[in-house]
Batch of 3 targets.
Target 1
Amino acid sequence: MEMALVRDIVDQYPYVAMDTEFPGVVAKPIGTFKSSREYLYKALKMNVDMLKLIQLGLTFTDEKGSLARHNGELCVWQFNFKGFSLADDVYAQDSIELLKQSGIDFALHETRGIDVHRFGELLMTSGIVLNDDVRWITFHSNYDFGYLLKILTCQPLPNTEQEFFELLNIYFPNIFDIKYLMRYCDNLHGGLNKLAEMLDVQRIGPQHQAGSDSLLTSFTFIKLANKYFQGIDGASKHMGVLFGLGVDGAPESKCHDNGS
């Protein structure tokens, strides 16, 4: 039902702001790596392969930032997934505490949550992936896209960063990462909440819930694009780069981590 609605609105509202919640970062690769970039990607792969997605938030707007409507109602989605167990799965304690404080009920997720594999099947036919007309709006989204690729492909992430970006560009051809855009804006710094405050964007809903965070991401992007890039078209030249990964990654240099 919800994905049918998504299919109905995506043509008119092709700007999709996305956020995920997941169990934090629990592992780091050990050994010698060709570069810092290789190390960072291996850490991403190791954690995404090991951990489970908890929430996904999606907010749809048009190019002016107007929120999607259906039968007069504003549309923002938060998908709560089952499968993650506090008793059986690994997680970062501080991340889970933040999610609990934000109101996430893990027991309720387990009894009433969505099966992530079934969701991946529905997402494939939703019209929002594999679509050159859709623009994805995100904030520091390496891990967000890692988890989405994992559920879309039903496979571990690719072994190399290059293969990751090849896959990413197939499923998500047009990506704005606000954290990367901030490199081109004077005096902007910090995380999403800090940036929203600096741009006078008001949050609706609780922090650290994916639906509310996706809505804040959407509003913040429009404000940023209009203030610093003369609109979305001006920001479009910076599409396709994820903050801290790929071409925005650390300079090529030898990297060694012994796990200490």
Target 2
Amino acid sequence: MGEEQVKQAGVLISHPLIPYLIDSLDRKFTTYKLFEAQNPVEFLAEHAQFIRGAACAGQNGITAELIDALPCLEIVATNSVGLDKVDLGKCRERNIVVANTPDVLTDDVADLAMVLMLDVLRHISASDRYVRQGLWLSKGDYKLAVKLSGKRVGIVGLGRIGTAIAKRAEAFGCSIAYYS
């Protein structure tokens, strides 16, 4: 497919996306922004025959009704890990390809899990509140905390995120127990 043919391919943007994503789609495709339409039903009736792809965010997705309104739809792409807002049954029925971003948040979630473990074990948030409330002046030093290193970390589900957490916990000298 040549560059001009790609540009002519219509992509429906159902709801507002991050501006740089819309800009990128605008450069590469002919975009149809449903979220800007005064009358979505009329908008779809006018443009449906040109729309071959749909782009959505994880919180909005694509419904069966919207898929039914797009007879030429070939692909649905969501910039999310989850697919719970995309009608997968309808996509399967129509042989529509569904694409997501399955690994985009793995590192972020694993990093946050480690931060939260450190916060709980080292009492970081609790001791911060203690100091800010002035309690250390009247009640003395905050209780001692425990270290993360050397602990046994239990992980339920050793998929992408669980594995990423396990690697980080191992770097802290933790042993890993998991159920998957």
Target 3
Amino acid sequence: MSFDWRQYVQLAGELINCPDTSPIKEAYFRCAVSRAYYGMFCMLRDFWESQNGCIYETGSIHRFVINKYKESNKSDERKIGADIDRLRHSRIAADYKSDVRIDYNDAAKAYKKSKQLLKQLEELSCA
């Protein structure tokens, strides 16, 4: 049985509701942004491979998959590509930029975007 990447999106939702008294709230928020991105990225990667076969060659798998969506002939796939790319930039800030503050609003925005992407992917799967 394979892992259900939607659980990462669900976890992101739980992480943004960390206790107000927690001394590590920003860590919760950073993790939420990261999980929101990775959950959606992995689902988009798996969907692309299910439709097109394993087509990854070399370099950044993230850039490769995102570009496949952004360069699609289908407008709904291009929108998905643009949205996941914006979410990737948020994830990079959350994972690597210690000088950038990540707060509740950032985490909630990433979670909301991941839920929107999930809906878009489900619509694409049914098409």
